[in-house]
Amino acid sequence: MSEVVSGHPRFTPQLVGHEAAERGFLEAWNGGRLAHAWMITGPRGLGKATLAYRIARFVLATTEDAARAATDGAGLFGGSPLFDPATPPASLDISAEHPAARRIAAGSHPDLLVLERGVDDRGRPRTEITVGEARELRPFLGQTSAAGGWRVVIIDAADEMNRNAANSVLKLLEEPPAQALILMVAHAPGRLLPTIRSRARRLALAPLDDARMERFLTTRLPELAPSRRAVARVMAEGAPGRALTLAQGQGPELLAALIACLDTGWPVPDWKALIALGEAVGRPDALEAYETLVEAWGWWMARWLRAHARTGGIGEEVIPGEARLAARLAGARPLEQWVELWDRLSARLRQALSANLDRKQVLITVVAEFAAASG
């Protein structure tokens, strides 16, 4: 079972359940065939960033141990089995007390650069990784490693780069510096340039099944109400990190509020409640809430469309009123029309992130159009 410890992935030394992906990396490492770029793919919350940090921790700790062993005969932590052909490493495990691990946890390792969304001039979180941020990679990778070994870049997430940033990274992938390792987390690899995808080796992480998710949540959050646990399990779709976020965050409540807006005055939305919801996710400091709502609505639509295609129903109801809303949508128009409509509306919802549009107005307009199509 994959276990994702809450908190930032750089503090998370263990990740259980993705042994196949780890073996793929270790086989390349032990065989001297290490690709310079790796793409770790799968839905949000599976542990992709945690795996990227595990790889970075392993590579940098191994490099430091090798340098230490070369000067005094053995590393502080016994050296690295990488340099003894009889005992190649069988795991990415590195002690949390290793100097490299401690520096990574502190965000101060000189041979690790993390590329992620920053903040704008007003201190607000950006909606994408910019070209200015991406250009930091070239001078970093052009420097000599502090330990005389590898320099590692984690891009979290690569599919959040804008086009100019992606092109800047592509140039590095085309002519990678020696002993440079680029680890790209990708929630939606299809959004990346095909030329980037073709230059990276893929490590695909798979979701957990329901039984493992139930055990994971019961173990990690034993005091969580069964109803809340069920919502988190169903909405997470096999992603344990996402399940923790849902269990402790706003996702279920925001989705329930949206469904209530659509269901209460059917087929006309509850305008007062909709405006209140728009204001809640449209404030300058509510970018995360808006992203959570968009993701939750997208999850619900995908769930309903799949269920409707198979059985015509929604299955297990985890959000109040969703079964009734699903039945109403099913009777309003054919399935293929809903797919086409949602593709268009969801693109507009996401555009509010990339184009810094008025999120409140975008949400109200999209919900109104969705409701009009339902009536």
Explain what you see:
The chain is an alpha/beta fold and 375 residues long. The protein folds into two domains: 9-204, Rossmann fold, CATH 3.40.50; 250-374. 53% of the residues lie in helices and 7% in strands. The chain contains 16 helices and five strands. The protein has helices at 19-30, 48-72, 99-106, 131-134, 137-142, 163-174, 194-198, 210-220, 226-236, 240-248, 251-264, 271-282, 287-310, 322-332, 335-354, 359-374, and strands at 37-41, 112-115, 151-156, 180-186, 201-204. The protein has a five-stranded parallel sheet. Helix 8 crosses helix 9 and helix 11 packs across helix 13 (287-310). The chain is globular, with a radius of gyration of 23 Å. The protein starts with 18 loop residues before the first helix and ends with a helix.
Structural class comes to alpha/beta
Biggest sheet strand line-up: 2-3-4-1-5
**Secondary structure tally: strands:** 5
What is the count of DSSP helices, taking H or I runs of 4+ residues? 16
Largest sheet: 5 strands, parallel
As an assembly, this protein is single chain
Low-confidence stretches: 1-6, 74-83
Percent in strands: 5-15%
Helix content: 40-55%
Arithmetic mean of pLDDT: 88
* CATH architectural name of the largest domain: 3-Layer(aba) Sandwich
Assign the CATH topology of the largest domain: Rossmann fold
Using the CA coordinates, give the radius of gyration: 23 Å
Identify the overall geometry. globular
The rounded distance between the terminal residues' Cα atoms is 44 Å
CATH class placement of the largest domain:
Alpha Beta
CATH H level of the largest domain: which superfamily? P-loop containing nucleotide triphosphate hydrolases
Overall tally of domains: 2
**H and E string:** HEHHEHHEHEHEHHHHHHHHH
